[in-house]
Amino acid sequence: MKFPSSTFFICILFFFNTVLAQDKPATEFSIDYEKFTLDNGLEVILHVDKSEPIVAVATVMHVGSSREKPGKTGFAHFFEHMSFNDSENVPVGANRKMIPEWGGSRNGGTWSDGTIYYEVVPKDAFEKILWIDSDRFGYMINTVTKAALEREKQVVKNEKRQRVDNAPYGYTDEIIRKNLYPEGHPYSWTVIGSLPDLQAATLEDVKEFYNKYYGAANASLVIAGDIDIPETKKLVKKWFGEIPSGPKVEPLPPMPVSLNKTKSLYFKDNFAKLPELRMVYPTVEGYNKDEYALEVLGQLLSGSRKSPLYKSVVEEKKLAPNVSSYNNSSELAGEFVIRVRANEGVDLDEVKKAVDKGLQDFETHGFSDKELQRIKAELETQLYYGVATVLNKAFQLVQDNEFGGDPGYITKRTKLFQQIGRDDVMRVYNKYIKDKNFVMTSVVPKNSPELAVTGAKEASVWEEKVTAMDASEEVGQGEEAEYEKTPSKYDRSEPPFGETPLFVMPEVWQAKMENGLKVLGIENNELPLVNFTLTFPGGHRLDPENKAGLAVLTADLMNEGTKTKTAAELEEAIGLLGSRISIRGGLEEINVSGNCLSRNFEATIQLVAEMLLQPRWDEQEFNRLKQELITSLKGNEANPRAIASLNFNKLIYGEENSYGVSPEGTLATVANISLPDVKDFYKNLSPNGATFKVVGNIEKARVIDALSSLSEKWTGEKVSIPSEEIINKASAGNLYFIDVPNSKQSVIYIGLPALSAKNEDYTKLNFANEILGGGSSGRLFQTLRIEKGYTYGAYSYIPSREATAPFTISTSVRANATLPSLKIIENMVKDYGPGFTKEDVALTQNKVIKENTRAYESLNAKLGLLSQIDTYGKPDDFINKEQNLLMNMDLEDFKTIINKYIKEGEMTYVVVGDKATQFEEVKKLGKPVIELDIHGNPVKK
C-alpha cells in the first residue's frame, strides 16, 4: 500500500480525525494523549480508548520518496515492502501471516515524506504486536537475503503495473511531477518510482537505506486503544528501548516551486476511454497557514451545485458529470488541482474554456456567507466521524507529532479552519491561482489525440514491454540468512497472549410503524453521531427487460431536489445541518443512507421525508444523470478488472438473469430509459417491506417519534420481487479469454455458483474459505504473492446475496505469469479439501473469533449487523450463535462444506489480458478456451 503524499493524512485529519470535547467551546477540538521520549530518541504517544477491546499501533518513519536520488527512485516504498519480510526474533513470514491469524489487521504506506506501519489487534495480542512491530523496526536488516530482495521486487513491480501501468490515467501523476518540479527536486519523481530503478536495487542499497533512515530518533510511535498507561510505558521501553538512535537526519526545508510559464502536455492513454483535463498550480507546504484557506477554496470552487466550476462545466456546458478542485500540501511543497474527466468525445479545449469561465465567475461574484457556513457545518460532523476508530486516532496523533511537532496540533488546525473568512479565501486565490502559471495535462484515448488541448506537447513516459518470463523473474523463498542475533538484555522471544476478549453482540431493538415500515436500532453513545439506512428490497432485480440501470437512475434522480427545493437548495439545506443524505440503487435493493449530529436527527429525517415523498423529477437533471451513467459505463470499458468482473457475472448467471447484468446497465439498456420510466419505477418504493436501520447516540423513542410523521403521510402495498434462480451452467469448466492489448497484467476471475446468504451453509462456507483466500494469511496470497511474487494480492470470497452467489477467486498477475498462476490456483483448489487438517480448523476458529472483537467497531459496521438481521432473517444475537457454530465444527464438517461448494472441475475461468502474448499460453492449462470481446460476445475466428 502507498499513500500519494502526506496530504493523505492532512485531509484525513481535516475531515475525519478530531474529537470535540463536550465541555469546551465549539472551536476547541482535542484528543487526550500522553507523550514521552525514550533514551534512543523515539517519541511515543499513548491514547486510551476502552470502547472496544482492541489496540492500534502506528509507527511513522520520517523518510519517503523525497529522500531518494535520481536513478534510485521508488526505494522508500520498496523498503516498506522489504520490512514486512523477516526479522531476527520473529519466524519467517510471520509479519504478514500471524497478525491476521491473531484476528488483527496490518499494513503500511509510503508517501513523498514518510512511511507508516500500522496494526490493529484484539487486546490479548497487544504485547505480541509490540514484539513483532519492534522487531520489524530494529531487528530486520540482518535477515535480508538476495532471494527476499528479488521476490519483493516482483511484488512491487506488480503493484506498479496494477495501480499505474494497467490503469486508465495511471501515468498522469508522473507527467505532472516531471513538469511541475525542476529536475532533481525531491517531488519530481513518483512515490512508486520506475521499474528499471526498482530492478537495479541491491542488498547494499537496502542496508544503506536502513542504516541511514531507520533509527529510533527518526520516528514517532503511537499506541491507541484499550491500554493501561503505566504498563504500556514499561512494555514500550522493553521492546523499543534498545533500537539504535541512528544517525541524525537533517530536516529538509520547504521547497515550494514557481513556474515561469504555463506548460500544456498531452498523453495518449492505452486504457482511457474518456478525455481528462488537469490543471495543477504550485502552492505551499503542509502546516503553512495558507494551506487551510486553500482547502476551503477548493470546496468553494467545486464542492457543491452552486460552485462556479460545477455550474460552468457540468450544468451550463454539460461537458462532464463532475468537476473537482482541491489543495494537496506535502512537507516541502503543495499543489492546487482542478480535474475534469469529460464525457466521451468531448474536446478538452471546451473544458478549458468552461474552467476559465468558472474561475472568472468566482472572481466576479465570489461566494455567499451561507456557502462558507455550510462547509464549516459539514466539517463539525466530519470531525466526529474520525474518532470512530482507534486507528484513525493513531494516524492523527502520529502524523501531527512527526510532521507538525505536536501530537495535539489538531486543536490549532481546527481553530485555523474555523477562523477562515472571505478575505483569507480571496487572498489565497489571488496569490496562487489568479493569472498564475500551471501545468496542464490532457490525457486522451489512444486513438483520439485530437481531443487534447490545442498546442499541447506530447508527454513521454517509460512503458514496460510485455515479454515472456525469463529466469530472473522466477523467484522463491530462498534460504534464510545466516547472522548473529543482536544482543539484548531482554528475552525477545514471542510473548504469550493476554486474556482472550470476546465480542459481545450489542443490544438490538426493533419496532414496526403503522405503514408497515420495520425499524431496527442499536444505541451507541460514544459520540454525538447517528448513522441510518432506509432499505427498499428489489433494486436492479425490478428493472424491466432491456432497461437495466433504471433502479440506479431512479435513486440518483431522487437526490436532485424536491418539489420545493432545487438540487442546489436541497444540497445546501442538508449541508447547513452538517448532515449527509444519499439515495443509491444497487443489485438487490435501493438504500437511503445518511449520517448526522444527534441533535440534528429530526431535521435530517424531515429532509429524507421530503426527498422520498416529493421528488422533483427535473428533466434537465435526469438528462445529466443519464449522461453521467453513460460516461461511467464507457469508462468501465477501459478497466481490465471491471471487464473481468462484469463478464464473470454474465457467464455465471447468464445474460437473461438480472444478476448477469450490472445494476448500472449497459450502454444499450440505459439508452432505452426515459423520465416516465423513472416515475413508474418510483412506485416500487413502498414502506411495506422496507426497513429503517439506525445506530448511534439516539434512543428508540426519539427515532420512533421522528419517523411518526413520515409514517402518517406514506403508505403503499408490499412489492413482489421476481425469483431468479436460473444459473448458467454452460460455462462450467471453460476458460474465457478477453483481449486488452498491451496489458501489463492479466486479471483472473474463477468461480462457480455456490449459495445464498440465507442458506444455513453460508456461514460455514465463509469459515471454510478462511485458509484458502481469507486475506493476506490465506494460501492464495501467501503462494502467489509472498512465495512467487506473481501478484500484489489474491483472494477468494462469497458475496452476500439473497440469490445464489458465486464462490469467487480473483487476482491480477503480471502478464507473463498468467499460466503459472492459473496452474497454481487450479491445483490449490483441487487439493484444498483433501489437504484440510485439524490444525487448519483450530487456526480458523482462533482467527474468526478474534477478528470479531474489531470487526464491528464503527457505526457503519454496526449498521451492517442490522442489515444482516433484516435482509437474511438472522437472530438478534447471530454473531454469538455463529461463534458457537464455528467452535463446534470439526474437521469432517469443514471437509463436507469444501467438497460441496468448492469444486474446481465446475469452475468458470475468466482471464483478461494481452492476447498477443498470453492467448496461446492459457491454452496449455488444458481447458476449453473461448475468446470473448469486452462485452462478452464470442469473437469470430
UniProtKB/TrEMBL annotation:
| UniProt-listed GO biological process terms | proteolysis
Give GO MF terms, alphabetically.
metal ion binding; metallopeptidase activity
Q: Which residues form the Peptidase M16 N-terminal domain?
A: 44-168, 524-646
Task: Give the family this protein belongs to, as stated in its UniProt record.
Answer: Belongs to the peptidase M16 family.
Q: Which Pfam families match?
A: Peptidase_M16, Peptidase_M16_C
Q: What keywords would UniProt list here?
A: Hydrolase, Metalloprotease, Protease, Signal, Zinc
Instruction: Specify the protein name.
Output: Peptidase M16
* Residue spans of biased composition, Basic and acidic residues class: 483-494
Residues of the signal sequence? 1-21
Q: Which branch of life, at top level? A: Bacteria
Q: Which InterPro entries match?
A: Metalloenz_LuxS/M16 (IPR011249), Pept_M16_N (IPR011765), Peptidase_M16 (IPR050626), Peptidase_M16_C (IPR007863)
Name the source organism: Marixanthomonas spongiae
Q: Where is this region: Disordered?
A: 469-495
For bias kind Acidic residues, which ranges apply?
471-482
Domain Peptidase M16 C-terminal, chain residue ranges per copy: 201-379, 672-847
